[in-house]
Amino acid sequence: MQGERQQTQQHQKAQRISLCMIVKDEEELLPRCLESVRGAVDEIIVVDTGSSDRSAAIARKHGAMVVEFAWCDDFAAARNAGLELATGDWILFLDADEALDTAAREQIRSWTAVSGCDGLFLNIHNYTGSGQQGATVNPVLRLFRNAPEHRFTGRIHEQIAAAICERNPEAAFHVTDMVIHHYGYQTVIVERKDKVNRNVRLLQRAVMEESNQPFHHYNLGVEYLRTGQAEQALESFGKAREMIDPAVTSYAHLLFKYEVRCLEHLHRWPEAMERVDEALQLFPEYTDLMHHRAICADALGDTDTAELSLREAVRQGPPPAIFHTEEGMGTYQTWYTLGRLLEGKADLEGAVDAYVEAVRAKASLLPPLYRIFRIMRVSGQEQQIPALIASRFAMNSEEALTKVLGILEQSGCYASALELLGEMPPVTSGEPRERRSVAEAFLHVQRGDWTKARLKLETVKRKKGLFASLASRWLERLQWLEEEGKGGREDKEGKRDQEDKKGKEGKRDRKERQGREGQEHKKGQQNEGQDSFTLWLRQGSQAGGGKDVLIKEESGLSGWWKSAAKGNEGPEENAGEHITSEKEHAGLYEGWQAFGLLLEGCARSGRRQELHELIQRGQQVLNEADSTMRTGSEESLAKERDAGTEEECRGNGEVDEKADMKHAGARLPFRGASDTLLGTNCILKGLISAADYHLAQLMSDTAQAGAGKRQRHPYWPVVQHIRLELPGADGFEG
Questions:
Q1: Which three-class secondary structure state does DSSP give residue 130?
Q2: Of 366, 410, 453, 382, which Cα lies nearest the Cα of 600?
Q3: Burial of 411 (0-12, 13-18, 19+ CB in 10 A)
Q4: Whole-number pLDDT of residue 558
Q5: How many CB atoms lie within 10 A of CB 584?
Q6: Whole-number Å distance between alpha carbons of 179 and 137
Q7: Which of 167-171, 313-317, 641-645 has the lowest mean pLDDT?
Q8: Domains and CATH numbers, the chain
Q9: pLDDT at 394
Q10: Whole-structure pTM value
Q11: How crowded is residue 425: how many other Cβ atoms within 10 Å of its Cβ?
Q12: Where is the composition biased (Basic and acidic residues) (predicted)?
């Protein structure tokens, strides 16, 4: 019994884990890190290397022992200062820009309790860019037994494995499935902390001090590659490769992959292919290399080899845990790359299958859905999209339906979106039913089917509910478009002088009538809220149209889809999600976004006259906005120069600039008109849609001499490829 009790006490002692960290000015990131280890560790030791913010106070609030350390450009020295004070049997080390995964927090004590190893590897998921582009996955030694001999070495990219193996040449390590999330490579964090320049400076110093250490050259190459300096990176990687034995060097597989990436960046494709084949001889299970082999083969024009390599990569799946990889290698990234390759080979059916597999591998992935819907629209199979969705995807949540509706709308698959809405359970209550009717109306607007859009809007207007005013405004806008189209056609029909004169008189009468209607409309709006955009359409781009207010808008109609996809929930059940006033949704349909919807409808239905008129009017507003904003800035600067003291100058300048901007807005025709970037994007999207429409007409079958025979245009494959590659929403915007 006594022996069992001692064994139990030793087992309990082995559970003790010390978290050791080094921080400097990490008040924004530190709380998330410390919260992530709550309950997973027994003590926290934070070595502060000179913070000027609240980092130390935050650490103490979470129960940490804070140690002040004078920074000496040596990460290993700072880490070891924390180890000297650690009392746990295991050491876990994290950085402030990291967080222990929730599952790992539950598992970590089980791993330390049963492990006979000297150290455990955790998988670091490094998020780069905006954090939405996936992650690289690196197995890294982060949990090891506490011993006086176990101390870090290395001025930067400090290591602990060498010390463990020196103490025990038979040391054993195990790769776990625990995850640490690392956010420090996201662009905003890298730029704020100037990490790359710091790392390069320390690594250059380390190379000078220990030029025979390949790990220093390797890490310096990584920093060069991160900043796009491929030539310098390749040189550093080459020096490291000459010094290592790939069979026993833990990072050798990464070194080879990074060399391949450098050669790809430099477009030295034959060398890249040679290097990747050499690496595959050493690391045949490393899926990342097979994926890059496909990229090189495609660049060299060998699409068959590229396809074979990608199919081999997905057959292999993600590489074994000992390899550093990128999320999606052998799964969704490889499937997506295969889809793009097959598109280039005009195997559209195969491409769709590949994209479906990509979504299956990662359900939250958007780009494959955009490609699927575009392919089916361009190839004339849009009517099959609802059946494809039903058979290949699990649409078992409101979020999934909302996402698909939004992507269909942004991909120009309006008919499919309408069919999908029509297949939803019927809505019986008033407001949700009207909301869905408005959503359907806007899909018809973008299709250019004014008649069906008007029928939906008139129904909503008659209900006199929450969306009646919105419907009324859009009915007037559609009426204006039809009048413009009719007027344009009348002008074109006049070939003789008398007919020209009659047409001009008719147009003048029409403009006078529009002016009277606009005045009546304006008077009516003074009572129910001014609709500056509709006034601008009817009266032309005139000063004093409306107050300029920038609106934070969502892409396309995605903000509307979430509510349009809802069923019969009552306001009591979902009061927080229910629209309670017109102000909450009006911004989705005003200003440049309304302009964009009208442009899209004209482009998709081939209404050249109306499209031309809208684009001209839009360009005029852009010019006015640019001129107005520039004038406002110049006037405010002049007032600053005329102010008395410097302090008064600053104060008056700030106030006057705000006043001038407000005055500038008052001169613009509708709210949000000063957002010239959004306006330009709307015009470009309209032009692209128009080009797509006319290419589709060119690509359509034409009548052939003979009974009922038709033939395909000889340039059909080229035109189809152009349509597939036209700029547009692709799911990568986030």
A1: coil
A2: 410
A3: buried
A4: 54
A5: 13
A6: 9
A7: 641-645
A8: 13-119+140-169 (3.90.550.10)
A9: 81
A10: 0.80
A11: 7
A12: 485-525, 632-660
